């Protein structure tokens, strides 16, 4: 989920749909799998619906800490899947804590360098705010705020057989070159997988992330929650990394769009209509749609990208972009998307919400 500052990483593969047909997997091409990692919330189901609608076989969801704590996000993943009979898709819990960062450490940085407009999970705890139905920030990371489950509190739980990072590693070995890793929250789980298995990144199809950097390229809470993990993930040897970053023509939902979506009523179109925050662009959704259909990008460039991991720096957790000639050692080229086809993006989002897949459609999980 993206807010004024947030990043989603699609660590996966952007499968070219050779036929160009919308929402139809190309029968000729290899099966395209994805693992989708995010800070899930009540209206956070659109990215996986877009992936499924586009013919991507979603192997599982992973949870991370970004706008709220991981345990709350994992339960939202389970709850939103239950809302649409998609519980055959497993949810694996990711790391609750960033590699190094903590709310106190982050807040200490802020006292020196200035408070961020959006602090995500590191915003000070506010029980009044939580009681009003908002997801928890700071304080005890394991507390669950039931009032925030406007989609319904889940009956099920995340799978406890393995961790998100381990699931990612296992799946890229099972389906080498075919699994996109999508990450629209912090990159902690991706970094853990990269460090756990030296083959992980190269065996994945690609990494897809949506970096939503408000008006500039500088701050994104998804990066800043875990700067060290961001650096590890974004410099790893994925065959391809695509960042839906700083999309110039950020596509916003409108009340009219939400009403139109609801003209085909179902649990997802209703939740979207009632709870999607219309004040933020389709950040995570853009990243997911690019994973399905890379040609949605109508203006993109290849840049060398690094993440500042110096705690003392005013740019701690920010991205630095270099031209090849000036790039420091140890960083790599990533694909940076500036502009997407707005009409096609909205079409994909609308179709995925109005005609969501259910488990009956997902034969690969049976
Ligand atoms: C989910 O499954 C239940 C029971 O099979 C059914 O009544 C309901 O209509 C289904 N909901 C959706 C959104 O498919
Ligand atoms: C806590 O949340 C309440 C309700 O949104 C708000 O009125 C109050 O200002 C917040 N407190 C702090 C310290 O931000
Ligand atoms: C793991 O999940 C299963 C099924 O939900 C449950 O029965 C079991 O108690 C869980 N184990 C642990 C250690 O939480
Ligand atoms: C990486 O993805 C971009 C966007 O889909 C594509 O243009 C590019 O050709 C891909 N590169 C490789 C090496 O697959
Ligand atoms: C692509 O985006 C960049 C950065 O916003 C901009 O400078 C450039 O003019 C755009 N190119 C086209 C063809 O629109």
From TrEMBL:
Keywords: Signal
Segments forming domain Inosine/uridine-preferring nucleoside hydrolase: 35-346
Annotated signal sequence range: 1-23
GO MF annotation terms: hydrolase activity, hydrolyzing N-glycosyl compounds
Family: Belongs to the IUNH family.
Protein name: Inosine/uridine-preferring nucleoside hydrolase domain-containing protein
